[in-house]
Amino acid sequence: MAAYAVVVRDGAVLLTRLAPRVSRQEVWTLPGGGVEHGEEPRDAVVREVREETGLDVTVGESARVHTGRRPNARWNGRRADVHSVRLVFDGYVPVDAPAPRVLEVDGSTADARWWPVADVVAGRVPVTPLVVDALATHRPFRMQRTAAYALVVRGGPGDGSGDGSVLLTRVSDRGFHTGLWTLPGGGVDHGESPADAAAREVREETGLEVEVGPVVHVADESIRGTAPNGRDEEFHAIQIVLAATVAAGSRDVAPVAEAGGTSDAVAWVPLASIIDGSVPVHPLVRAALDAAG
């Protein structure tokens, strides 16, 4: 009984090379190994991936079962009729994880690295049948999220500042749209209203307090890619944009970007720079401005 992880990220799969004592030829397989007596399979995967790649993996709750039989295999120095049951879990590691490296000494693993999935599927990488089967049945995690955003415009009706700019945050390398400027906002927590979520997210991402008004735009977006936690996802976002104004006590406070989140900068961006395209923005920004008039 053995447990393995198929870890796909940014079009690459995490594989380990079998040590020469296991295979004289170069062969790559999924990180994983035998489940010890009394050990939970998910715990075994985490332990094996750590030993073979040096990475801390998070694995899903369910696994796909692969079985195989080798009637005349060598096992512990003798011939044996080996029947193996292999549990393959979907796993993921953080996007900022270090490069893989083998930690175990004198084990069955000689190397660890990320291989392009396209090269593996095309047969350009010598792999075990388990890798081929696991990639054929792997599906990205399906994630749907409702998010609330705040459209905060200075120089709009009742504002009086007259500078015609929009409060935007820039997507960090932990997000799906790295480098684009977008509206401050994020996921609506369970039991939280969109208005409260928008105010909370603005506070977290910019340090400003806002008064949230009516809904001005609703959109949705589907993305296939790597989530901030490193998981391969099919992400569907429901995006609710609400009008907002900076609260009186925050009007003289400069916005400050949060640390360690999916945004790495915050600024009041001139409307003219959005219109002429000199500042790259997420399509949601233009759609919300058009809807708000």
Automatic annotation (TrEMBL):
UniProt GO molecular function: hydrolase activity
Record keyword Lyase present: no
Nudix hydrolase domain mapped to chain residues: 1-138, 143-292
Cofactor list: Mg(2+)
Domain of life: Bacteria
PROSITE patterns on file: NUDIX, NUDIX_BOX
Family annotation (PANTHER family): ADP-RIBOSE PYROPHOSPHATASE YJHB-RELATED (PTHR43046:SF16), GDP-MANNOSE MANNOSYL HYDROLASE (PTHR43046)
Protein name according to UniProt: NUDIX domain-containing protein
Originating organism: Nocardioides marmotae
